[in-house]
Structures are given as structure tokens and as C-alpha cells.
Amino acid sequence: KTSGRNRAVVYQEHMNEVLQLERTIEAELREALRTTDQLSVHFQPLVAQKTRKIVGAEALARWHHPKFGSISPVKFIPVAENSGLIEDLGDFVLRKSCALGAEVPGRTIAVNISTTQLRNPGFAARVFDLLYETGMRATDLELEITESILLDDEHVSAQNLRTLRSSGIHIALDDFGTGYSSLSYLRRYPVDRIKIDRSFVSQLSDGHDSVAIVQAIITLAHAMNIQVTAEGVETEEQADILGRLGNNTLQGYLFSRPVKADEIVAKFAGDPEV
Ligand code: C2E
Ligand code: CA
Ligand code: CA
Ligand code: CA
């Protein structure tokens, strides 16, 4: 039988390992950001619900380490956020995204933005610089922010969002339904779109409770003039139910995994009637 003391020792060792791993990831990521050749951005198609045409793509950071191989953003994004490296990493992703956006005018390029980035008073100006440098249109850019920003009292974040949005950039609320906020918070920030989290979408089947939840989210969003994207769509049945519920945009492995920039350009070219 393990004594309380032993359990505490095991826990301590475990925490030490976790901290050690985080420190390693941080040091390796700092190095990766110096030359950026281990880093890339992949793009996952966004598909119109009614026509099933590719209307845009979401940018997703990728890291291929020479020794450790592919490291998931689920692991390195939180480390980047806690260490401040997210500023440089986020800038890298935005630059690649704007470069793509300039190549494919008329398609929406959605980019994940951390709360840390939004709290930087220079953030909006940096986005405008990148749009100008690359020639991407502001109206083709969508910034995905998480629900946690709605609980953030930071005046700077709200100011950044207002400045960005007044230039025609769209704002999407990511992972909707997973946080502590509710639709009532949406009134605090100008939001053009919400993205229904995969955890709801994956449970969509006729007769399941999640159908009612998703229906309620879509109805309320539309009443507030907000568009809806369902993420993590993997089956035709899910896409079908979402269509009946009035969803606007689909994203998920049913259509495509995230692909390299040249592959997304080819997909856009093969699907011209937006
Ligand atoms: P997210 O923003 O919710 O992005 C969607 C995630 O779901 C992506 O994982 C995507 O590959 C995955 N996905 C898409 N369709 C499906 C599907 O049909 N089934 C399943 N099982 N998964 C699907 P990924 O690329 O591993 O990214 C994970 C998270 O890391 C993202 O979640 C986002 O929160 C964060 N992230 C990725 N890139 C960036 C970035 O450049 N900046 C910031 N701040 N966060 C990023
Ligand atoms: Ca996202
Ligand atoms: Ca999401
Ligand atoms: Ca998600």
C-alpha cells in the first residue's frame, strides 16, 4: 500500500518531469524561432455549408523538430504563451497567412490569435503593417480569438479588436461553448462569427442532446447577426444535421486535413466559384 508520503514524492517527481519538459520545449522553440526553418503553417479548408465550396482556410502552426519530429501545437502553444515566445511565433504565423491571403484574394484566411498578442498595444498596427507589406485585403483576414478574452478586462485587447474590426478585418470566437462565458458576453465585443467546438460537433447524431445545444447556439448567433462555423466535422451525418440546423460554414477531416500552403492554393484553384 502506498503511503501518503510516497504519493507526495511520486507527485513531486511527476511535476519535476513536467516542468523539465516545458523548459526543454521552451529552449528548443526559442532556437526554432531564430531561423524558423523547423516551423511552418498549414491551412485547413473552410467550406460553405450550402454549396460545399472552399471559401477560405484556417492557418495552423506546425513544428518539425530535427530530433523529436513533429510536435503538436497542443503542446507548444501553451509553452509559447507562458514564456512570451507566442509574440514571435504569432507574428510568424500572421506573416505566412497574409502572404497566402495576398495570393488568393476573395478567400478568407483565419488566424488564431492568443490573448497575450491581443494585450500588446502595438498589435493592431502590426497587423496593418503585414497587410500593407503583403498586399492582402483586410476584409479577407479573420482573427480567431478564444472565449477567455470575453472575461478579460484588459482595455487594450478591446481597443485592438475595435481598431482591427473597423478596418474590415473579421473577428471569430473560437472553441465556442467550452469556456465559462455565455452568448450574453458577445455583446461586450464585436464578433462576426462563432466557431462551435468539436466536442459538440462530434456528438451530433439524431436524437442526441447536442443537437438541441447546437440548434440553440445557431439560433441565438443568427439573431445577433453572427455567422457560425462548425469545427471538427468528420462525418456526412454531422454535416447533414448542421445543414438542417442552419449552420453557415464547415471545417473538418470530412473535407480535408490541414495542408501545406501550395496545396491549399491548388485546392482554391480547383474550386473557383466561391
Ligand atoms: P483550434 O484553433 O481549435 O484548431 C482546430 C484543431 O482541430 C486543429 O488542431 C485541427 O487540425 C484539428 N481538427 C480539424 N478538423 C478536425 C477533425 O475533423 N477532427 C479532429 N479530431 N481534429 C480536427 P491542431 O492543428 O493540432 O491545433 C490545435 C490547437 O492549437 C488549435 O485549436 C489552436 O488552439 C492552437 N493553435 C494552432 N496553431 C496556432 C497558432 O498559430 N496560434 C495560436 N495562438 N494557436 C494555435
Ligand atoms: Ca482556431
Ligand atoms: Ca477551434
Ligand atoms: Ca477546438
Automatic annotation (TrEMBL):
<feature type="domain" description="EAL">
    <location>
        <begin position="22"/>
        <end position="272"/>
    </location>
</feature>
<protein>
    <submittedName>
        <fullName>Bifunctional diguanylate cyclase/phosphodiesterase</fullName>
    </submittedName>
</protein>
